[in-house]
């Protein structure tokens, strides 16, 4: 039983990332009708926002430490972060330690701005084009973005450690222990997903957006600038992907190809949940995360070698053959 609980926790952990990325993908497809293959790159850029903030907070200057000498007897030079010189050692060290959560705040305006630039500068020109054209141009954009990141930060993963207070192991029950940050990530994902759904359901802006997703032309005839609201939703979707990437950094060290690693799986999640269905994207993300976790157990990989690599695609094939619209998708979208 303990092993089953641990596999469910692992599935919820990975499923949180799938659900957050798939949620943004579905928001964009549902509002703009665009298949955005650059969405994984937004997840990657979010992760590197954490890298940027960490390096910014660790900028330091050298001073002479008269209490220490090198092997020649000369005074040693020590590095002192600027943040510690401004706020004192204790507060400065705490700010540096909590660089990842602080990077979430930094990533929100950055990712919204990037989303606006992407949508207004490129993607809006492909609204009325075939989905194949949208996939090609956004996939090309994703490659460009990841190469830009590679040029600035290199090809090797960069560690972005979690705060010391949240980097340990939590005892959930007798014999069940689990990393604290992974629990934090799941809780964070739950809050973000709940916030997006609440925004769409209980705010006037969100209600108009949902109405526009159902019947864009009628909403436009009412004198509402639905295009502007959809552009804002693109920025929100980018921010969701960026925050997901920031918080995932301590789990999987940011690297330039992490966006592509998650992108394909997230599109599978969207298809399984149902194109355009927000609840379907979230439900499928957690479901496939749990299935992948159980398929990665020793028993599963011994019984069917490689099952952990193909389980998600097998599920997608079965869903597409039996229910093309997806688990919670609307009739006529994929048929």
For this structure, the CATH topology is ABC transporter involved in vitamin B12 uptake, BtuC
The value of Rg in angstroms is 22 Å
- Described by its quaternary structure, the protein is single chain
The CATH architecture is Orthogonal Bundle
Outline the low-pLDDT stretches: none
Q: Kindly name the structural category.
A: mainly alpha
> What composes the largest sheet?
2 strands, antiparallel
- Average pLDDT metric: 87
Please state the overall shape, judged from the principal axes of the Cα atoms.
globular
* Strand element count: 4
- Report the portion of residues in β strands: 5-15%
Number of domains: 1
Helix content: 55-70%
Number of helices: 14
End-to-end Cα distance: 41 Å
Name the strands of the widest sheet in spatial order: 1-2
Q: How would you spell out the order of helices and strands?
A: HHEEHHHHEEHHHHHHHH
Tell me, what is the CATH class?
Mainly Alpha
InterPro entries: ABC_transp_permease, BCAA_transport_permease
Keywords: Amino-acid transport, Cell membrane, Membrane, Transmembrane, Transmembrane helix, Transport
Subcellular location: Cell membrane
Transmembrane segments: 16-35, 42-61, 102-123, 183-209, 230-251, 263-291, 303-321
